[in-house]
Amino acid sequence: NYSKAVKNLDQARSLEPNNLAIAYALEDTLEELEEAGGGCCTEGPGEETHLSKGSEEVPAELRQEEEAFARECMAVVSTEFARTGEAAATVWMRHVDASSASEATGGPAHKLGKIVVEGAFRAADTLRSAVEFVRSQHTTAHASAAIVTVRKRTMLYPLAWWAGEWPLSIEVDGVFAELHSAAHRTTRTWFMALEEENQILLEPVELKEDCGLLVDMPSIFL
Predict the structure, then answer these.
(1) From the CA atom positions of the chain, what is the Rg in Å?
(2) Can you tell me whether residue 88 is helix, strand or coil?
(3) β-bridge mates for residue 110, sequence order
């Protein structure tokens, strides 16, 4: 919600008072809070489904399949980053292909789709608009899981590294990857730190729930 965003941005500004990006993000968020009536963004019952961590509720087999999908996407992003030095904000979709079997699991294979959402992480309103756009797409309705990936240095909202227990230096750049389960409305988030010298992404580190990308957003899935 906006109140949490303001708190995180205000904390970040106190530590980096000369950072204009944080100042602008705080100003924009305060304006949005005022337009919303000065309170937190809440929805009526049944209007939006918000995500929770809840990984313990996911059956082990499904959790394994979804983690394999997450690591596949992270490997694709890492390979592309090593080649181009870029990692555009993207939502990757897992579509089950019942006509063929997966060599890894023996179950149905899957196809990989994606929606580029460049600029989504500039402010709370642009991120919410991006989520609403993604969830309205035909490809999303038929996906079993999704991964949101975004480069840290391009993000103005949320400042996930200020939101909770961050395992690395605040200055470290890299790429976030957040898994969203369609069946269980649960999330898991990883961070691949950038090794500046060789310009490669290191092995993913799983983050605490508070460091998620879409913590205060509606679910990607309807």
Answers:
(1) 18
(2) coil
(3) 96
